[in-house]
Amino acid sequence: MKIKEFKLERYFAKHEFTAKYLLSSSDCDGYEQSHILDQASSDELKMWNEIKLGYTESAGNPILRESISKFYSTNNINDIVVGSPGELNFIAMHVLLEKQDHVVAVAPAYQSLHEVVHSIGCEITFWKPNEEWVFDVNHLEGLIKENTKLIIINFPHNPTGSYLSIEELNQIVGIAERNDCTVFSDEMYHKLISEPDNELPPISDLYEKGISLWGTSKTFGMAGLRTGWLVCQDKSFIQKAIAFKDYLSICSSAPSEVLSIIALNHIDDFLQPNIEKIQQNIKLFESFAKQQELISTFTPPRAGSTAFVPLNINCTSLEFSNHMVETAGIMTIPAEMFDHPGKFIRVGFGRQNLKETLPVFECFLDQNKSLLSE
Question: Alpha helices, DSSP H only, in 194-333?
Answer without folding.
Answer: 203-206, 235-245, 254-265, 268-290, 317-327
